[in-house]
Design goal:
Oligomer: single chain
Shape: globular
Radius of gyration: 21 Å
Number of strands: 8
Number of domains: 1
CATH superfamily: Winged helix-like DNA-binding domain superfamily/Winged helix DNA-binding domain
Strand content: 35-45%
Distance between the termini: 11 Å
Largest sheet: 3 strands, mixed
CATH topology: Arc Repressor Mutant, subunit A
Length: 127
């Protein structure tokens, strides 16, 4: 594990889960071994145009799926090295729907019972 990279990250934010579950995101994450990669190396690994990869990497960094391990100046251009923020991502889906009707009688009396939150954890890892 590289400094700054966690062993496990739990994802519960719906927006981040949606981004993480995209096949393209999975391809990017799976292209990593234990070493950071540049945008060009990532693009080559997944057979994607280098010019178009930056948009996707920026989105993954802003949602804490990838992070920048270091930046170097190469021929006057800033070159970033990327790595997933964790070795494993665990998706935690919580569903809370509120109250459920348990009884309705003829005098319009309604009995309500709380619905408990359900939690489902899905473990996904790379390497």
């Amino acid at each position: 594990m590289i400094k700054g990279q966690k062993e496990i990250i739990h994802i519960s934010d719906k927006k981040v889960i949606k981004i993480y579950n995209r096949p393209f995101t999975k391809r990017i994450i799976e292209c990593f071994n234990d070493d950071p990669k540049t945008a060009g190396q990532i693009a080559n690994s997944i057979s994607f145009p280098k010019e178009k990869i930056y948009y996707h990497l920026k989105k993954l960094v802003s949602n804490d799926i990838l992070y920048v391990t270091s930046t170097d100046l190469v021929k006057g251009i800033e070159q970033k090295l990327f790595l997933p923020t964790a070795k494993q991502f665990k998706i935690t889906k919580k569903e809370i729907t509120g109250l459920a009707v348990t009884k309705v009688d003829t005098e319009t009396e309604i009995s309500l019972a709380p619905i408990t939150a359900t939690e489902k954890i899905i473990t996904q890892s790379y390497s």
